[in-house]
Amino acid sequence: MGGFHSLYTHGFFRTGACVPRMGVGDPQFNLARTLELARQAHDQHVGLVIFPELGLSGYAIDDLLLQQPLLDAVGQAISELTEASEDLFPVLVVGAPLRWQGRLYNCAVVIHRGEILGVVPKSYLPNYREFYEARHFTSGLGIADAMIAIAGQEAPFGTDLLFRSAGSAPVTFHVEICEDVWTAAPPSSYAALAGAEILVNLSASNITIGKAETRRLLCGGQSARTIAAYVYSAAGPGESTTDLAWDGHAAVFEYGELLAESARFPTDSVLLTADVDLDRLRQERLRVTTFGDSARAAADQVNAFQTVEFHLDAPDADVALERRIERFPYVPADPARLREDCYEAFSIQVQGLAQRMRAAGAAKLVIGVSGGLDSTHALLVCARVMDSLGKPRSDILAYTMPGFATSEGTKSNAWALMRALGATASELDIRPAARQMLADLGHPAGAGEAVYDVTFENVQAGLRTDYLFRLANHHNGLVVGTGDLSELGLGWCTYGVGDHMSHYNPNASVSKTLIQHLIRFVAHSGDVDADTAALLEAILAQEISPELVPADATGAIQSTEAKVGPYALQDFNLFYVTRYGFAPSKIAFMALHAWGDAARGRWPANIPERDHRAYTLAEIRKWLEVFLFRFFTISQFKRSAVPNGPKISSGGSLSPRGDWRAPSDGNAKVWLDELKRHTPEA
Ligand SMILES: Nc1ncnc2c1ncn2[C@@H]1O[C@H](COP(=O)(O)OP(=O)(O)OC[C@H]2O[C@@H]([n+]3cccc(C(=O)O)c3)[C@H](O)[C@@H]2O)[C@@H](O)[C@H]1O
Ligand SMILES: Nc1ncnc2c1ncn2[C@@H]1O[C@H](COP(=O)(O)OP(=O)(O)OP(=O)(O)O)[C@@H](O)[C@H]1O
Ligand SMILES: NC(=O)CC[C@H](N)C(=O)O
């Protein structure tokens, strides 16, 4: 099997859905097209590839289905296909009318490496409106523990089959046929509860206006409900147009998400592929424990399945991932989705803080404004909160509090911002108190020595927060937290007395990369004047720094990203560690795919061209190691004691009362070992 660079190494699985050019009632023609596509799928390392319903005979051939020569020719085509499959990697699932115990069934035949693994008859035969399947076929409902003679072999036959690979490409799949998924209780629902991860559907669904959307709803919804992948392929060009038409719709969904979809109304054969993330499905089924509850509720149906085992071994080649992986899991590149995300994130933040202000009977909001990203965004939220409560923005008491390392640039940005947003702005110099405290501590910096250690830093961060809390007492206000999700993930905040603490933190579950985007979004929204937009751009462009340590001899300022890593990568790591609990080597593989080439895929809007950069595997590995150590070893005690704040993204919040509970005395050993063992250094 391939190495680190192969998708099969990391729990991905390539699926294929074919729309072959069809010959009406012409099994040899259809066999030839099927074989062409199967060979293409082989060349593309597809593990499981499906073809349309009754694809070997044609679907809309009416009473020809009852013609002996036609059925014999279909049998011959299956024999030839089975023989040819010996040299092919993928499991093939083809549609054919088959005779069993003197009756005709609308079947899916599952073939791998010269063997018929099983045959699944269609359960639900539509016989309403334009459909007349019951005229020819018998329903497969209830057929179990049966065998069928086919292509010189004896194969399992029934609707009780699950197919499971015990090879180095492990997967469990189930097969249903068109109408089966149109029903209130599709067979695949029970199959998923019995362990099927990929649900395939061989379909011949004639097209009428608007029907493609119905299919998306049904297949996408089925994949979401069953926490599975749903692979769908419908008949296309060449299918009989006597009274109907065919748009050749192929699509692959994963847990409610459309992974790939064919262009409809093709004029020739199509192979659609999609890389399904089986790990994601497996991890999600562990989390969503009600999935197991519904398996218990449907125990009779679930326990009735039998498993057909086969061996699919991952290709030796390094099969490169083709799936689109967002660079920023918290900031989707699709403009429409991003707009919706920004609207929701901002509205959640505003609603959270407004409700707390009302409930606490607070007259004012108190906030420290540094001129950095987090406090800028929190201040934008405060302004909107006041608007929504019908209070004047002057009820926001905003303080800029210069310390030993505050630059003129950030301070003037802070002033400009407080003014632009209409807050009551003040300046409070923390240096005299900080000097006093350092002296009281016996710290050398108290006597003017250039000792810039963590105590020196935290005295400043702590004093700022202390002032804000006492100002809140003094003015009947709430201290608004600014620290973001990414900082919380990395433990990049001062515990208890510092920026870790507030009365309510609307930023707590907004990642740094999303905060950057939200500010960008406001700057480009037209909701603020040109000066404010320029100010926001200036804030976005500056180096991220806590400004707690003065610039060094070269003038270089304290850089957060030089210490904890680029937020772009750390947000990627944070998302996949907390949302799915993936292995670090898989996260590194995915990060390389997302970030390895600046030209690949779309970037979210408004990110300046100069920031379109790439990361090497060595960089990705290095910063992932930093992330794992910081996240698992040194920062959980901070997350175990965070103020309230609303959960914002499906990526999760890190509140111990919300979406992330972990021991405060754990360590990163397991994760670091996994990373080192399975990720090359470059
Ligand atoms: N598991 C555990 N349970 C309970 N306590 C634990 C602990 N592990 C360490 N501790 C204790 O915690 C203390 C260390 O934590 P803490 O006092 O927070 O200090 P620490 O995390 O060492 O330092 C704070 C860091 O955050 C950075 N910062 C501060 C402010 C703002 C920003 C920003 O950019 O937003 C960044 C700052 O530059 C500094 O590097 C030590 O006294 C240690 O003994
Ligand atoms: N000079 C300052 N004046 C007022 N408040 C400050 C100052 N420096 C820090 N703070 C407060 O402490 C918080 C944490 O500081 P930090 O520098 O990490 O955040 P930031 O500057 O808002 O954003 P970023 O972390 O993105 O630079 C700020 O959000 C702000 O509330
Ligand atoms: N072949 C089928 O089972 C088609 C039935 C399905 N209800 C459709 O309209 O597409």
TrEMBL record:
Stretches assigned to coiled coil: none
PANTHER family hit by this protein: GLUTAMINE-DEPENDENT NAD(+) SYNTHETASE, NH 3 /GLUTAMINE-DEPENDENT NAD + SYNTHETASE
Pathway where this protein functions: Cofactor biosynthesis; NAD(+) biosynthesis; NAD(+) from deamido-NAD(+) (L-Gln route): step 1/1
Gene3D superfamilies reported in the protein's UniProt record: Carbon-nitrogen hydrolase (3.60.110.10), Glutamine-dependent NAD+ synthetase, C-terminal domain (1.10.10.1140), HUPs (3.40.50.620)
Keywords linked to the UniProt accession: ATP-binding, Ligase, NAD, Nucleotide-binding
Protein's name according to its UniProt entry: Glutamine-dependent NAD(+) synthetase
A family per Pfam: CN_hydrolase
GO biological process terms held by the UniProt record: NAD+ biosynthetic process
Domain spans labelled CN hydrolase: 13-278
Record carries keyword Ligase: yes
Catalytic residue list: 53 (proton acceptor), 122 (for glutaminase activity), 178 (nucleophile)
Leader sequence segment: none
GO CC field: cytoplasm
Gene expressing this chain: nadE
Function: Catalyzes the ATP-dependent amidation of deamido-NAD to form NAD. Uses L-glutamine as a nitrogen source.
Entries under InterPro entries matching the protein: C-N_Hydrolase, C-N_Hydrolase_sf, Gln-dep_NAD_synthase, NAD+_synth_C, NAD/GMP_synthase, NAD_synthase, Rossmann-like_a/b/a_fold
Enzyme class: ligase
Binding sites annotated in the UniProt record for ATP: 368-375, 482
